[in-house]
Design brief:
With about 1200 residues, the protein is an alpha+beta fold. The chain contains 32 helices and 31 strands. Helices cover about 25% and strands about 15% of the residues. Helix 17 packs antiparallel against helix 18 and helix 17 packs across helix 22. Bound molecules: zinc ion (ZN).
């Protein structure tokens, strides 16, 4: 069994990414032996790989008692041999851990390119240090006399006794704590406290970022996931000041950053290493592809870590620009916006940052109040000291660019200067940015879209086609270097601006072919053998005008004037050349099904012989050689239609991807021209709305339960537009009007129709009313109809004008399977029609924040067998609608499934009974601020002990512990931390003035509280008293809604805290707190008050967030600052830190008035909320005073 474990570990290590500088890991000849090579870092001067062997003499000891012998060949560099002899602390380590230790040791000992050894030199001046003190030693191994088994980290530290001095460790701790206090979870990996290669991870739950659920869907992130910034310090931790002092050459070896997502708050060491492993460098850019799974592989449980949709563009951006921006920010006055603008300008000029910064960069950025505080917080602005936490700054910068990604160009990262709102990020209007966006794969994977949402892809192409055929496109795929067929404008109708889409088009008759202007590319006359797919140049020009891979447009001079688009396969036997099976574009607008399949009979297998006597049909062709950008707008529209006509149906794309390896459309060369493929990518990638299929065409869509009743024969899509904070703004407006007008039904629904040709722009620009071309008879605003049939009138096909050669008007994409006739959206609107611009016969809504798109319906004439017909079924759990204002669908009033309405989703989540009217539910909710409730899982994702450890100061010899040994009955299994004077179990509960036990309960809240208690209990058993700083006696808790808790060991946070001295003077070892939970918990914050001892009030010159009456008053504990996802572990930690914060809490030493009474605390809390403008949680009075809820307040 041990042997098998060893082999398994070895194999696992072989499959995984190896630690820095290690490669070629193999099993050795003997049992328990393995070999690997050390190649060092790119900057280390190692020329030849060094072969290293590791042996476990007795493999039967693995993995609990084994030892390693590690050595290298004799011809290895002397430094390596010597370093290996010093490798210690490897006993009982797994294979991977051993490799990591060897990697760290050797990397350190090998010189970098400057010739220095890689030692952090900044701490060299720190004085003598005991090397055996280490935060990792949670079991105090290092203090025991056990010479045979020095711990890994003690051994590592002994090599660099001066690097990781006390000052250094204290600074690391301060920096990490700053990030933690700011609301993030912080982890570390590697050799952080030893000043060696280490990772610091800063993470936050996606659900805390205030991103709407729609945006999360569009971004393919899960609210439960963590957004993680991993900071790697290859040469040991560097402070903000040290990093700023590095020029760009020195920065790269000292700092690297990656943005990831994961279900865990912290990656494993292997995943962290993987994140920084460059598997390939794409393009000539410095853009990094890591070894992590991509953004679309979210669902796979295999690897917990993955990239986010925006990791690729951001990783390089952070690496390049963050430190220079921090440098300019440190010179004072600039906010992030100013620093970014300045950086962009410097970068575009290629200038250094030495000049004086012009005034315009100092203009502060407008504050966006709808963003959550954690996103807008700015560590630079809040402190005046020079010592700032780099991990915190980096994370705040990362959040800015993650949450607000739609405000920035994905490529050049400039702030986009447009008012348009979009749910997905995109690029600015520089064509180079679009080009890089497409070529670097920053956009969505088109293959993924085709496979998972084929109807959406069909819809997007159809919208584009409609818009282009009506010459209504405004943005074009410029900059993508599209090489397209020539466009003969004389064959097409000119757009008629006066008549618009209702115009009647007069076909222009063109006589003979080829009589058009010579501006076009040359036409080649040839003979064509349709059967053998061969062409012959009778006149044989000197040079063959085409190459293998060229695309041509071929027309025979017979009766059939169809265009054939095809790819040249072989020109070896010029003047005879071979082509692939052509894509035939019928001129009649009837879809051509002959080339729907998986491509032509393979041209490659055909034996090619010069034709002897083929039956040549006279034909001519032109080459795809027109530069798309050279065309005028009308010609671009025509060109787009033509290219789209050559695309196969989406089903064929799907079939190709499902059966071919690699599943990548760019390999379908014989069927899709490069120009058509680029165009398709552009159409998918430039869509900035979130459109999700409700009905799958195979096996039923996952969102089938979101199908709305009453729109028979319409294909339905969930539909969201607007910036990521749009939903939040909408909810705020809903709440405001609901309260102002005392509405029973906060919102109504109505239809918004628009002609098909407009939808391409709508889904890119969002709803606005800047251009409305069907008149504004009822004023400015977005028009909504109460009946689907009314909106339908605005949304139909473009009559008359269309795209199509020689007089045939084609307005729809011929290969569409949906074959859309019309499209209408269903919007949710604030229920205040009287305040609309107009409310009869249409709702004309002038406030965009009052409108939220919910559904998109398209009426189709689907091709046979392509779209599953869906049975109409009333949803079982309907969303309650205002009966006076329920819109009518095709025939009946519509019924919306409750699960489809996001804001309601939060409301119905266990916090209020469904029998209440919607208005009451809204009033009762604090949770509207937090639209995405998360199942509390603090038990499954507890903070690693080592990440907690790092926050606490080592033993301070100057602080005399009052009692040294805890009484024997409290000797639990928990680890011994720093000294504490706190003795658990000494509090006499009968002496406490506490509130009566609450009589209320709610099963969801009770369950959550029991879970919290269990999690805290577990943590308490596993953590040293002093590290925890609180104590909860579970035996004394008879009601889960009322906890008595003690806080202690404040000297661990700050030995010089006045409170520490105060407590010692009064011989107090703990503060006793009462924590009371409302029945709405976790949607309202707990109420926390001090029972004893008494503190000085703020008016008396004290602080610590303890107000008169002993109530704790911090924003976190009010409805304004509370988040339902806060775990009680973090709440307790924040309370403790709040008491220790400035201005400091001081005890009332007069001792005249005993414990705090229950009533005075609640009064103090209410007063403090009023002062700060914080929202008092609903039901607070009932909870704090034990009074019944007064009316509706
Ligand atoms: Zn750009």
């Amino acid at each position: 069994m041990p042997r098998r474990q060893f082999v398994a570990d070895l194999q696992k290590a072989q499959q995984d990414t190896l630690p820095l500088g290690i490669c070629e890991l193999q099993q050795g000849e003997d049992d328990g032996q393995f070999e690997f090579e050390f190649i060092g870092t790119p900057t280390s001067g190692i020329i030849e790989p060094v072969k290293i062997t590791a042996i476990i003499p007795d493999v039967s000891d693995y993995p609990t008692r084994h030892e390693y012998m590690v050595y290298c060949s004799d011809d290895a560099p002397r430094t390596i041999g010597a370093a290996l002899e010093d490798v210690r602390g490897t006993n009982r380590k797994t294979v991977f851990e051993l490799l990591d230790i060897v990697s760290a040791t050797l990397t350190r000992s090998t010189p970098d390119r400057d010739g220095d050894t890689q030692m952090p030199d900044s701490q060299l001046e720190t004085e003598d240090e005991e090397s055996d003190q280490d935060v990792y030693d949670d079991d105090h191994e290092a203090f025991e006399i056990n010479a045979n088994q020095p711990t890994l980290y003690a051994a590592a530290a002994s090599r660099l006794p001066k690097a990781a001095g006390r000052a250094f460790r204290s600074r690391v701790r301060t920096d990490v704590l700053a990030a933690k206090t700011a609301g993030f979870r912080v982890g570390h990996l590697g050799h952080l406290m030893d000043g060696l290669n280490a990772f610091v991870t800063v993470s936050v739950r996606m659900s805390k970022l205030g991103i709407s659920e729609e945006a999360m869907q569009a971004w393919q992130v899960d609210p439960k996931e963590y957004l993680i910034l991993i900071i790697q310090y290859p040469n040991g931790y560097k402070t903000n000041e040290e990093l700023q002092a590095c020029d760009s050459m020195r920065l790269t070896p000292n700092l690297a950053m990656r943005l990831c997502a994961s279900k865990k708050y912290k990656p494993t060491l292997q995943d962290a290493i993987k994140a920084f492993t460059v598997v390939k460098k794409d393009f000539k850019e410095d853009f990094i592809t890591s070894d992590l799974p991509g953004a679309q592989e979210a669902g796979t449980e295999k690897s917990a870590m993955r990239e986010t949709f925006i990791s690729k563009p951001l990783n390089g951006f952070f690496q390049e620009s963050l430190v220079p921006m921090l440098r300019v920010r440190s010179s004072g006055g600039l906010d992030w916006g100013g620093a970014e603008a300045w950086y962009t300008e410097m970068a575009s000029k290629g200038a250094n940052d030495t000049g004086i910064i012009p005034d315009r960069f100092y203009k502060p950025e407008a504050k966006n109040d709808t963003l959550s505080d954690i996103v807008t917080a700015d560590h630079y602005a809040e402190r005046s000291t020079a010592a700032r936490s780099f991990p915190l700054l980096a994370m705040q910068f990362a959040l800015r660019h993650f949450v607000r990604c739609t405000e920035f160009c994905l490529v050049c990262h400039r702030k986009l200067n447009v008012e348009l709102e979009a749910i997905k990020p995109y690029v600015c209007d520089q064509s180079l940015c679009l080009y890089q966006y497409m070529t670097l794969g920053f956009g969505p994977s088109i293959e993924h879209e085709v496979l998972t949402q084929p109807q959406v892809v069909d819809l997007l192409i159809s919208f584009c086609y409609n818009s282009a055929s009506a010459r209504k496109l405004r943005d074009f795929p410029d900059g993508l270097a599209l090489v397209v067929p020539s466009v003969d404008m004389s064959q097409y109708h000119a757009p008629d601006p006066a008549l618009g889409y209702r115009g009647h088009a007069v076909p222009q008759i063109k006589s003979a072919k080829g009589s058009h202007e010579p501006q076009d590319l040359p036409t080649h006359e040839i003979g064509f053998d349709r059967e053998r797919l061969e062409m012959i140049f009778f006149n044989k020009p000197e040079q063959c005008p085409v190459r293998r891979g060229s695309w041509i447009v071929l027309t025979t001079q017979g009766f059939d004037s169809s265009e054939m688009h095809c790819r040249v396969v072989d020109v070896t036997y010029y003047p005879t050349i071979n082509i692939d099976e052509p894509v035939v574009l019928s001129s009649t607008g009837v879809p051509n099904t002959s080339n729907v399949g998986m491509g032509s009979a393979s041209a490659k297998t055909r034996t090619i012989t010069p034709a002897t006597t083929p039956r040549w049909t006279p034909a001519s062709f032109t080459v795809y050689a027109q530069d798309f950008e050279q065309l005028d707008k009308a010609a671009k529209c025509i060109s787009i239609c033509k290219l789209l006509d050559t695309l196969p149906p989406v089903k064929a794309l799907q079939d190709y991807l499902a059966t071919k390896q690699p599943a990548d459309l760019k390999y379908w060369v014989e069927r899709i021209s490069p120009a058509a493929l680029s165009l398709l990518r552009w159409i998918v990638a430039s869509n900035r709305a979130c459109i999700m299929q409700v009905d799958g065409d195979s096996g039923g869509g996952v969102r089938g339960q979101e199908r709305l009743y009453g729109m028979k024969d319409f294909v339905q899509f969930r539909f969201a537009m607007g910036a990521p904070d749009k939903e939040q703004r909408f909810i705020t407006e809903v709440r405001k009007t609901t309260q102002r007008l005392e509405l029973e039904y906060p919102t109504i629904f109505a239809f918004h129709g628009s002609p098909l040709r407009n939808w391409h722009m709508i889904i890119r620009e969002g709803l606005h009313f800047k251009q409305i071309d069907h008149g504004r008879a009822y004023g400015d605003g977005v028009y909504h109809a109460k009946e689907a049939s009314t909106s339908g009138g605005y949304s139909g096909v473009n009559a008359g004008l269309g795209y199509g050669a020689k007089g045939t008007a084609r307005t729809a994409w011929a290969n569409s399977q949906l074959r859309i006739n019309s499209a209408i959206a269903l919007n949710e609107i604030v229920n205040a029609p009287a305040e609309f611009q107009s409310h009869h016969p249409y709702y004309v809504v002038q406030h965009l924040d009052w409108i939220q798109t919910r559904y998109l319906f398209v009426q189709c004439q689907p091709a046979e067998g392509t779209v599953r017909s869906i049975e109409e079924k009333k949803p079982t759990n309907a969303h309650p609608q205002d009966p006076q204002r329920t819109p009518t669908g095709v025939s009946n009033p519509i019924v919306i499934p409750a699960s489809a309405i996001t804001s309601r989703r939060a409301a119905s989540d266990g916090r209020a009974s469904t029998s209440q009217s919607p208005a009451k539910r809204i009033k009762g909710l604090g949770g509207f601020d937090d639209p995405i409730p998360i199942e509390n899982d603090s038990t499954s994702d507890v903070t690693d002990a080592e990440d907690l450890d790092i926050l606490f100061e080592e033993d301070d010899p100057e602080l005399e512990p009052v009692t040294t040994d805890p009484p024997s009955q409290t000797l639990t299994k928990r680890p011994k931390g720093a000294a504490t004077d706190f003795v658990p179990g000494t509090l006499d509960f009968t002496t406490l003035p506490i509130m009566p036990e609450p009589a209320y309960a709610n099963s969801a809240s009770t369950r959550r509280l029991m879970k919290e208690l269990a999690a805290l209990q577990k943590l308490q058993n596993a953590t040293a008293l002093s590290d925890l700083g609180w104590h909860l006696d579970a035996e004394q808790i008879s009601n889960p809604y009322q906890w008595i808790l003690e806080l202690h060991s404040f000297h661990v946070i700050e030995p010089l805290l006045p409170l520490v001295a105060d407590m010692r003077r009064q011989n107090l070892h703990s503060l006793v707190l009462e924590i009371r939970f409302n029945r709405d918990f976790p949607f309202t914050p707990p109420y926390v008050r001090v029972i004893r001892p008494r503190f000085l009030s703020f008016a008396q010159g004290a602080g610590g967030h303890i107000v008169q009456g002993g109530a704790m008053c911090m924003e976190l504990l009010t409805n304004t600052g509370w988040s339902s996802v806060s775990s009680m572990e973090s709440v307790l930690m924040q309370i403790r830190l709040a008491i220790a914060s400035q201005p400091p809490a001081r005890l009332d030493t007069t001792g005249a008035r005993g414990d705090y009474g229950t009533g005075e605390a609640a009064e103090g809390y209410l007063r403090a909320c009023r002062t700060h403008g914080w929202a008092v949680p609903p039901g607070f009075r009932e909870m704090a005073f034990g009074m019944p809820r007064a009316g509706r307040t």
